[in-house]
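Figure S4 source data
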Amino acid sequence: ATTWPAARAAAGGDGKAYIVEDATLYEMDPLHDRHDEMPTGTLWSSNHLVVMGGELFAFEAGGSMYKISLK
């Protein structure tokens, strides 16, 4: 099983999990225990993640919110 000892935020939806760990955003397939870095080019400091309507919303420690398309 995959461990996430430095995870800052996580959310799930549409059969996937999204995790911020060590400033990196990952997409995880929990059924197959597979995870891949999402190529956003951003260092993440998210406190909260929300999946809604095919998009991932990342709420950052400084108050910013980012919307990432999951399509």
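Figure S5 source data
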Amino acid sequence: KKGGFKVGDKVEAQFRRGKKWVAGRVVVAHDDGTYDVQYRDGNIDEELGASRVRWPEDEDGDKAVRVVHYS
């Protein structure tokens, strides 16, 4: 499942809707399932679709796994 990010999550996003994935942080999670992502240099992409935002890869190139615990 794509998406499911919340404000503050570290992610990778396709900078300026291009092909390059760049590290950033979700600064707004819109009700329509899009996200505003701020990159380390301060640039922000607004209203990125879930297909343009992903969990970061770890040092080995594997996708990071997010574990959610429900109580």
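The chain has a mean pLDDT of 84. The two ends are 22 Å apart (CA to CA).
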